[in-house]
Specification:
The complex is a heterodimer of chains A (about 350) and B (about 300). Helix content of chain A is about 25%, strand content about 35%. In chain A, helix 2 (about 90-100) packs parallel to helix 4. Chain A folds into two domains: about 5-235, Rossmann fold (3-Layer(aba) Sandwich), CATH 3.40.50.300; about 250-355, Beta Barrel (OB fold (Dihydrolipoamide Acetyltransferase, E2P)). By secondary structure, chain A is an alpha+beta fold. Chain A has helices spanning about 40-50, 90-100, 105-120, 135-150, 165-185, 195-200, 220-225, 230-235, and strands spanning about 5-15, 15-25, 30-35, 55-60, 65, 75-80, 155-160, 185-190, 205-210, 210-215, 240-245, 250-255, 260, 275-280, 285, 295-310, 315-320, 325-330, 340-345, 350-355. Chain A contains eight helices and 20 strands. Chain B has about 300 residues and is an all-alpha fold. Chain B has a single domain, classed as MetI-like (MetI-like fold, Orthogonal Bundle), CATH 1.10.3720. Helix content of chain B is about 75%, strand content about 0%. Chain B is built from 13 helices and no strands. The longest helix of chain B has about 35 residues, at about 65-95. The relative contact order of chain B is 0.14. The chains are: A alpha+beta (about 350), B mainly alpha (about 300). The interface between A and B is medium-sized, with 27 and 20 residues. The structure holds adenosine-5'-diphosphate and magnesium ion.
Chain lengths: ~350, ~300
C-alpha cells in the first residue's frame, strides 16, 4: 500500500522559494500527473518525493512513513529520468539488474526479474548492448525496465517522453498506460505536455509558479477549469477568453457583440461585474456546420482571417473585440480568408471567470 | 625529359623534417650506436670501435644495475599507488567544497610549480639528521631522543625520497582526477541513489568507472616521470650513501659523466627506456579499456 501525501511542502533555494506549500494526497495505485509550464516546480516537487532534493518545509510521506529524512534508497521508489540516466558502462542486462544486485538478491531471482522486465518492454534482443548502442526509444524502455524490476511502491517519472519524436511518444504513452494496468502501483508523472497529462492521468495536478492551480480528473479540469490559467493550459486549441461586463441577463463583450448570460451562471454574477467569457473552439461554429445545439445558444457575425483545414474539421481564426478567436467548422467547406460568417455559440458549454481574480464563477 | 620534382607536401614538410632529424633523430641514432661501442668521453677515438652487445651483456650481469632497476620499479610502484590514492582522496574532498574551490585548486597546484631540484633541496633539509624539521619535531614531541639518520640508512632514505616524490606529484593526480570528477554526469549518480546505492556504492559502481580513464592518464604520465627520476634523488642522496638509494638514472648519470663511460651508460639508458615504454603501453591499454567500458572509444 503506498499512498503519497504532501503536506504544505515548500522548496527554497537560498532565499528563492520555488515551491510554495503544496498539499496533495495521492491514493494507492493512482496515476497522478503533475503538469504545468516549464519552470513551475514540477521536477522539484517530484525530486523531493524521490529524496534527491531536500524538503525545506512541510512533510512528505510514502505509505505510512514520513520520509523527509530518509535517503532515496530507503523510500522504496523508482524514478525514470528525462534523459534516461542509464549507466553507460553497463550492458542493458546489467542496467536492469543493478538495483537488485545492490540489494544482494540471489542471482536466479535477478535473472528472473530482468528477463520478465525485458519481455514486458521487448528488450530481449538488446540485452548485451551498452546504452551507447541503443536508439532513443530503446534507451527509454531500458530506463522504464530498470524502474519496474524493483517492484517499488511508487514510480516517479520526470518527463520521460520529451526526448522522443512525436510518433514514438504516442506509442510509448500507450505503453506506459498498459504498464500501469499490468504492474499496479502508484505513479507520479511529470510532464509539460497537457495531451500527455490528459491521456495518462487518473488525476491531473496543474501547477504554476510553485502553486497548485487545480486538481481533478482529466474531464474535470477540461470541463470545469477553476481559473483562466487552467482553462487556457488544458485543451487544444486553447480556450478563447473574451472580456466583458454583466448587464441584466446579458453579457456585453468589450467592443463586441452582446450575448445572453449563460443560464448556469445566472445566480453567480452581479450587475455590472467585469467578467471573462471562456469558450472553446468546439463550441463556436459557423451556422450549418455545428453540432446539434440542445440548450441556449447565441449567434453573431465574425470575419475569418485564416483557416486551417484538418480533414474532418477546419480550424477558423477570426477576430472579435480586437482579440484572436479560434472556432471550428464541422463537415467543412472551403473558406476564403476575409470571409464573413455567422457563428453559433453554445452557451451551455461556456465558462465565466471573474476578471479580477481570474477564478471561475461556477 | 622532366627532372624529378618532389611532391609539394614533401617540400612543405621539409623544414620540419630537417629540424626533427637534427634534434631528435641524430642524437637518438648516435646514442644508440654508441651503446655498441666502448665510448669514453675522455677518449673520443673509442667511438669507432664496435664491440657488439658487450655493454648490454655487462649491464645484464651487473648487480648494481639490477639493484638500481629493482629500486626504480619499487619506487615506481609504491609512489604511483600512494599518489593515486592520495590524489583521489584529495580530489574527492576538493570536489565537495563549494566555496573557495577555485582558490583551493590553485593552491593544490603549488607543488607542481616547484622545480624538482628545489623540492630535492627542501626535503634534504627537512630530513637532515641534525637540523632537519622531521627530527626536530620528533625529538620535541619526545618520540625519540636520537637523531634518526633519514638520508643515510637505505630504507629510511627510500622513504624520504618517496615522501618528496609524493609531495611534488600527488597534485598531478588530484588535478587530473578532479577534472574527471567534473566530467561525471549527475543523472546516473542520482539514478544509482534511487536504485538503492549507499554513497560508497555509487562511488564504487558509477563515479569510479568515469574517473578511471583520468587515473590511467595520470599513471601513464607519472610512470614516465618516476622511471626517469633523477633530480630529487641526485640532490637528496646522490644515489648514496654507498649506492643505497641508487636509481636507474642516477646510476646512468654517474656512469656516463663521472666515470665517463658513455657507451655503457647509453646501453643502460636504452634498457631503462624500454622499461618506461612497457609501463606506458600498459597504462594506455588500461586507459583504452576503461574508455571503451564507458562507450567513449571511437
Ligand atoms: N538548484 C537550483 N537552484 C536554484 N533554482 C533552481 C534550482 N533548480 C531549479 N531551480 C528553479 O526552480 C524552479 C522550478 O524548477 P523545476 O522544478 O525544474 O521546473 P519544471 O520541472 O517544472 O520545469 C525554476 O524556476 C528553476 O529555475
Ligand atoms: Mg522539469
Amino acid at each position: 500500500m503506498a499512498q503519497v501525501h504532501l503536506r504544505n511542502v515548500v522548496k527554497k533555494y537560498g532565499a528563492v522559494q520555488v515551491v510554495h506549500g503544496i498539499d496533495l494526497e495521492i491514493q494507492d495505485n493512482e496515476f497522478v500527473v503533475l503538469v504545468g509550464p516549464s519552470g513551475c516546480g514540477k521536477s522539484t516537487t517530484l525530486r523531493m518525493i524521490a529524496g534527491l532534493e531536500a524538503i525545506s518545509e512541510g512533510e512528505v510521506s510514502i505509505g505510512d512513513r514520513v520520509v523527509n529524512d530518509l535517503p532515496p534508497r530507503h523510500r522504496n521508489i523508482s524514478m525514470v529520468f528525462q534523459n534516461y540516466a542509464l549507466y553507460p558502462h553497463m550492458t542493458v542486462r546489467e542496467n536492469l539488474g543493478f538495483s537488485l544486485k545492490i540489494a544482494k538478491r540471489p542471482q536466479a531471482e535477478i535473472d528472473k526479474a530482468v528477463d520478465e522486465a525485458a519481455q514486458i518492454l521487448s528488450l530481449a534482443d538488446y540485452m548485451d548492448r551498452k546504452p551507447g548502442a541503443l536508439s532513443g526509444g530503446q534507451r527509454q524502455r531500458v530506463a522504464m525496465g530498470r524502474a519496474i524490476v524493483r517492484h517499488p511502491e511508487v514510480f516517479l517519472f520526470d518527463e520521460p517522453l520529451s526526448n522522443l519524436d512525436a510518433k514514438l511518444r504516442t506509442q510509448m504513452r500507450t505503453e506506459i498506460k498498459k504498464l500501469h494496468q499490468k504492474v499496479k502501483s502508484t505513479i507520479v508523472y511529470v510532464t509539460h505536455d497537457q495531451v500527455e497529462a490528459m491521456t495518462l492521468a487518473d488525476r491531473i495536478v496543474i501547477m504554476r509558479d510553485g502553486h497548485i492551480e487545480q486538481v481533478g480528473t482529466p474531464l474535470d479540469v477540461f470541463e470545469t477549469p477553476a481559473n483562466t490559467f487552467v482553462a487556457t493550459f488544458i485543451g487544444s486549441p486553447p480556450m478563447n477568453l473574451l472580456p466583458g461586463t454583466v448587464s441584466g441577463d446579458r453579457l456585453a463583450l468589450t467592443d463586441g457583440p452582446v450575448v445572453p448570460l449563460p443560464p448556469q451562471f445566472a445566480g453567480n454574477v452581479a450587475e455590472g461585474q467585469e467578467i471573462i467569457l471562456g469558450l472553446r473552439a468546439d463550441n463556436l461554429m459557423p451556422v450549418g456546420h455545428t453540432m446539434p445545439m440542445e440548450g441556449a445558444y447565441a449567434e453573431f457575425d465574425m470575419t475569418v482571417n485564416l483557416s486551417e483545414p484538418l480533414g474532418t474539421e477546419t480550424l477558423l481564426f477570426g477576430s472579435l473585440a480586437g482579440r484572436e478567436v479560434q472556432a471550428k467548422m464541422l463537415s467543412p467547406r472551403p473558406v476564403k480568408d476575409g470571409e464573413r460568417l455567422r457563428f453559433q455559440l453554445d452557451l451551455t458549454r461556456c465558462h465565466l471567470f471573474d476578471a479580477k481574480t481570474q477564478q471561475s464563477l461556477r | 625529359m622532366s627532372r624529378f620534382r618532389p611532391p609539394a607536401w614533401f617540400v612543405l614538410l621539409l623544414p620540419a623534417i630537417i629540424i626533427l632529424a637534427a634534434v631528435v633523430l641524430v642524437p637518438l641514432i648516435l646514442s644508440f650506436y654508441s651503446s655498441f661501442t666502448p665510448y669514453k668521453l675522455t677518449r673520443p677515438e673509442t667511438l669507432y670501435k664496435w664491440i657488439g652487445t658487450f655493454n648490454y651483456e655487462k649491464a645484464m650481469k651487473s648487480a648494481h644495475f639490477w639493484a638500481a632497476f629493482g629500486r626504480t620499479v619499487l619506487l615506481l610502484t609504491i609512489a604511483l599507488n600512494l599518489e593515486m590514492l592520495m590524489g583521489l582522496g584529495l580530489a574527492l574532498l576538493v570536489n565537495k567544497v563549494t566555496y573557495g574551490q577555485r582558490a583551493l585548486r590553485t593552491i593544490m597546484m603549488f607543488p607542481m610549480m616547484f622545480s624538482p631540484v628545489l623540492v630535492g633541496f627542501q626535503f634534504k633539509f627537512i630530513f637532515n639528521d641534525n637540523v632537519g624539521l622531521v627530527n626536530n619535531a620528533l625529538q620535541s614531541l619526545g618520540l625519540t631522543d636520537r637523531a634518526i639518520p633519514w638520508l643515510v640508512d637505505g630504507q629510511l632514505a627510500f622513504i624520504a625520497i618517496l615522501t618528496a616524490e609524493m609531495w611534488s606529484a600527488t597534485s598531478v593526480f588530484a588535478i587530473l582526477i578532479l577534472a574527471g570528477l567534473f566530467a561525471v554526469p549527475r543523472d546516473p549518480i542520482e539514478a544509482a541513489k534511487v536504485d538503492g546505492c549507499t554513497p560508497w556504492q555509487s562511488f564504487r559502481h558509477i563515479t569510479l568507472p568515469y574517473v578511471m580513464p583520468f587515473i590511467y592518464i595520470a599513471l601513464a604520465i607519472r610512470s614516465l616521470d618516476v622511471a626517469r627520476a633523477y633530480d630529487i634523488v641526485q640532490i637528496m642522496t646522490n644515489g648514496g650513501p654507498a649506492r643505497r638509494t641508487e636509481l636507474l638514472w642516477t646510476l646512468i648519470g654517474r656512469t656516463g659523466y663521472v666515470d665517463a663511460k658513455m657507451g655503457y651508460a647509453n646501453a643502460m639508458g636504452y634498457i631503462s627506456i624500454f622499461l618506461a615504454i612497457i609501463f606506458t603501453v600498459y597504462f594506455f591499454r588500461k586507459l583504452n579499456a576503461a574508455r571503451s567500458e564507458l562507450g567513449m572509444a571511437g
